[in-house]
């Protein structure tokens, strides 16, 4: 369950995006959120591996940044299920390659 939540956090606003555009967007937003939050490459790799230190402030900030940038949640904290499904599908597809 924790992995699903984290995967959901690493998402992009998809509207009419293809999987390739979505994957590119994920990498672009990672490079934006990393310096904004103090997250390191090691933290990002651990998140993808499912090893998440929920007590780490950098992890929390990074996940929040990605969720907001990807429109997974709005400024009021409302969850966007459709975007999450599209993003999770793209991430799982990327991990299979």
TrEMBL record:
One GO location term (cellular component): extracellular space
Gene3D superfamilies in the cross-refs: Pheromone/general odorant binding protein domain (1.10.238.20)
GO MF term list: odorant binding
Keyword annotations: Signal
GO biological process: sensory perception of smell
InterPro entries noted in UniProt: PBP/GOBP (IPR006170), PBP_GOBP_sf (IPR036728)
Signal peptide: 1-16
Signal listed as a keyword: yes
Protein name from the UniProt record: Odorant-binding protein 16
Natural source organism: Apis cerana (Indian honeybee)
């Amino acid at each position: 369950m924790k992995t699903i939540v984290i995967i959901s956090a690493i998402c992009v606003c998809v509207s009419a995006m293809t999987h390739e555009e979505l994957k590119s967007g994920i990498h672009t937003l990672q490079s934006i959120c990393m310096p904004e939050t103090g997250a390191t490459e090691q933290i990002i790799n651990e998140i993808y591996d499912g090893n998440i230190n929920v007590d780490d402030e950098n992890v929390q900030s990074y996940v929040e940044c990605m969720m907001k940038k990807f429109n997974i949640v709005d400024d009021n904290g409302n969850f966007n299920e459709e975007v999450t499904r599209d993003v999770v599908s793209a991430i799982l597809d990327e991990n299979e390659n």
